[in-house]
């Protein structure tokens, strides 16, 4: 699929809706100068971003750039030995970083819920899906007036993800296809009626028909339940189809944040993002037009001193070799971390 096709599709199908209206929506999750370390390695480095109520927000980037670590930190679930080394995360004004376990447990699942990349293996194979749902409801007795209402709500969710509750409730994980498991995992993630659903690579392990189905279902869920969605992906075509806002990461740093239109159409664009767009495979266009990005993502153990993308960047100038560029926002909150791209606008005072 070419970028133009992605754009055309986006115009028809994207869950983003009116980006101006979304711009005005209140912040639901705010990440401020967040860093996460695994020992001396900084997997997430000084990341700041704002997710607004009703967003479908993509965290995008190549493997190892820190997007899963960032997403896990949104739920206070950085895997050991990782630690939050700087910054904070607030959810509707409550600071999550450093929050005590009991309070965090109340928010997790019920306010912010995650569907893991390993969702395919997230179920207990020896008990039915229905029993697993009952266990979740028992662990959260305040979430519904009665267990029966909880069960009925799950059945409603199963219908929203286009599954037959009769079949799924009594079924075992082994009887579900990969696509069905992913949809059951999404329904389970929504069981406690969270305001934010975080999905790690929601379509990666699926064939193309199931990918399409999951995209349609996520758009439906966003519209029907009004849930804010954050998803992790390495797939720009998925970003264009599903998201209204995106943050692109590179080697632990945020290199660009903005609306879909800003990321794909704005002339002010990070050279890495331009390179990623050129690298999107096209189904119909000549494959010779695809331009892989030369070089490799640097190891976190051997980061270059200046801009982390500089060794692969055709536009790099002297300062890029020595000074890590800050992410500068324009009035519309479109942020780019690039000395070259920001130079003119900075001089005119057009950046925050
Ligand atoms: N459990 C861990 N122990 C040590 N280092 C880790 C751990 N998890 C992540 N890291 C480090 O953090 C970096 C970023 O990993 P992360 O999983 O967040 O990236 P990602 O962009 O989500 O990649 P992928 O798409 O492959 O999951 C890794 O390259 C690794 O150096």
TrEMBL record:
Domain named ABC transporter: residues: 29-276
Coiled coil: none
Subcellular location: Cell membrane
Keyword Membrane listed: yes
Keyword line: ATP-binding, Cell inner membrane, Cell membrane, Membrane, Nucleotide-binding, Translocase, Transport
GO cellular component: plasma membrane
Keyword check for Nucleotide-binding: yes
Bilayer topology: Peripheral membrane protein
CDD domains: ABC_NikE_OppD_transporters
Region (Disordered): 1-21
One protein family per Pfam: oligo_HPY
Gene3D superfamilies: P-loop containing nucleotide triphosphate hydrolases (3.40.50.300)
Family matches, as InterPro entries: AAA+_ATPase (IPR003593), ABC_Ni/Peptide_Import (IPR050388), ABC_transporter-like_ATP-bd (IPR003439), ABC_transporter-like_CS (IPR017871), Oligopep_ABC_C (IPR013563), P-loop_NTPase (IPR027417)
MF (Gene Ontology): ATP binding; ATP hydrolysis activity
NCBIfam families hit by this protein: oligo_HPY
UniProt record similarity statement: Belongs to the ABC transporter superfamily.
Protein name per the record: Dipeptide/oligopeptide/nickel ABC transporter ATP-binding protein
